[in-house]
Amino acid sequence: MRIKQHYPLFINGQYVESSNGEVFETINPATEEVIATVAKATKEDVDHAVEAARAAFESGKWPKMTAAKRGRLLNQIANLMRERFDDFVYAEVLNSGKTVDAAKGQILQAIEDFEFYAAAAITLQGDTNQVPNGFFNYTVKEPVGVCGQIIPWNYPLMMAAWKVAPALAAGCTVVLKPASYTPITAYMLAEICQEAGVPDGVVNVITGSGSEIGPYMIEHPGIDKVAFTGETETGKDIMRRASGTLKRVTLELGGKSPNIVFDDCDIEAAVNGSLYGIFYNTGQSCEARSRLFVHEAIYDEFMEKFLEKASRIRVGNPFEKGVHMGAVISRSHQQVIDSYVKLAVEEGGEVLYGGKIPEGEEFEKGYWYMPTVIGNVKNDMRVAQEEIFGPVVVVMKFRDEEEVIQQANETIFGLGSAVWTKDHGRAHRVASRIRAGIVMVNSPISAFPGTPFGGYKQSGFGRELALETLNLYTETKSVVSYIGSKPLNLFGI
Ligand code: NAP
Ligand code: MG
Q: Among 7, 135, 280, 444, which residue has the fewest nearby CB atoms (within 10 Å)?
């Protein structure tokens, strides 16, 4: 067994069962088999985790440790993750249904995130500021405190790393809640943090129903900051609830990212990049480029190549070599995806490829969906406006730059976007006008440790993965000191 059969909660450096003993099953979405049971946290367990994180913070053990030493421990976490790379890949594929290649890339990135923030920890510095004679002012960056971090199922370990690594680097303590579908790698990470020498209580992991314990976490007075990645609607609920205690909030939410293919692009590169941009991770990516805009002059040529390559995408056992798309996360998600395809047809769209659950013996168990391409779409249709979060791309034809920029921006979201063109001026002109946190120019990928990742508009706010993320885990303290030789007597009494 490369994973455990049961995962209790991880609180204060120890595995503990939930206070009422309840557990839930976690499954392999490619086979529907139960792979482990997991403790289901209660509100009481949330209290314990928050108390542990608070005590670890107040004791000063972690926040007052030198940044250099915290950095060394983050490097040690990365080293241990590298040693267990294959186990992480195995657990992630088993629990999420994603392919081995996708899991490898994401786990490598999670490791590099820890390495990036290990190096970045020591860059957190204050300033001295110009103040009137007789005064002296300096600022200190202090950790914000206890962080409640709630993450989704699409990139389980990577999302954990995006949140835990900068929080630890800044000196914060953490209560991490992974998604109920994909809890395993978060627990593996917690064990490694402890093994690396991170003090007890600094990293706590709890699992349980987001709709039951999530709101309790968000409203908890013992938590100073909430960092959330997930659906836009959940993000809105979180923001409302966080207002009661004025928590610091960062939100990484949904998207409906435009992928713009100009007639002067390298068609081969644009076809490959557009294909990867939507079908990578079985389309379950926040930055999935799910609205494909193709210039009318190359539409036929582009679509012929795009559809031909879409037909060569292999769906199947995610552990098998050569498979491009694994399972989707759950039966209910598979049904949501399928209902969007039916809606597209009702709205006047045309299924150009896929549009159904694949057939055959290997698909009898598990949750599958074919790579799906829908043409004859207008940007105001629901399938062009709502996040499907599956392997479904809608295609639209455009005439000129102005028109496509306008349509690209006609969405409540603003997370990713992509531009395919050989015209350098056009690439950056369009990039400057797209209202989104990320623009990919002739690139199918968008995220490396160090590149800010996050949204405009209803895709959220705050940036992850970057140096500036550290600031979101700190408060600035301004220390003003009087250094004059005569006592001040401002009342003159
Ligand atoms: P979700 O349904 O919003 O759930 C995300 C997390 O929130 C889970 O841990 C969930 O717990 C918990 N949760 C559910 N209801 C809650 C509540 N009322 N209060 C607090 N927490 C609550 O999102 P998902 O379906 O897991 O993930 C897909 C979404 O994530 C997509 O919209 C995608 O675009 C977005 N995403 C965004 C980014 C980005 O960087 N912008 C990256 C990746 C994914 P349970 O699992 O127990 O329900
Ligand atoms: Mg959800």
A: 135
**Probe residue for ligand 1, chosen from 96, 229, 238 as the CB with the greatest number of ligand atoms within 8 Å:** 229
Given 252, 287, 387, 464, the catalytic residue? 252
What is the band of 408 on the pLDDT scale with cuts at 50, 70, 90? very high
Number of independent structural domains in the chain? 2
- pLDDT in the model for residue 215: 98
Note whether 192 and 80 are within 8 A (CB). Answer: yes
Is-catalytic flag, 252? Answer: yes
Contacts of 336 (CB under 8 A, 6+ apart): 388, 389, 390
Ligand 1 pocket by Cβ (under 6 Å): 150-155, 177, 179-180, 209-211, 214-215, 218, 229-231, 234, 237-238, 252-255, 286, 387, 389, 415, 453, 455, 459-460
Q: Which domain holds residue 147?
A: 6-253+455-478
Which one of the ligands is nearest to 38 CA? Answer: 1
pLDDT of residue 2: 87
The Cα–Cα gap between 387 and 380 comes to 13
Residue 245 included in any domain = yes
By percentage, how much of the chain surpasses pLDDT 90? 99
Residues 21 and 143 occupy one common structural domain: yes
Residues 285 and 203 placed together within one structural domain of the fold = no
Average pLDDT of every residue of the chain: 98
What CA–CA distance (Å, rounded) separates 241 from 219? 6
The verdict on 279 and 418 lying in the same domain is: yes
Which residue CA neighbors atom 42 of ligand 1 most closely? 286
Q: What is the mean pLDDT of residues 283-290?
A: 98
CATH code: domain of residue 219: 3.40.605.10
Q: What angle (nearest 5°) sits at the alpha carbon of residue 157, between those of residues 386 and 287? A: 25
Task: Say whether pLDDT at 1 is over 80.
Answer: no
Ligand nearest to the CA of residue 41, numbered in listed order: 1
CATH code for the domain in which residue 360 is found: 3.40.309.10
Residue 211: inside a domain: yes
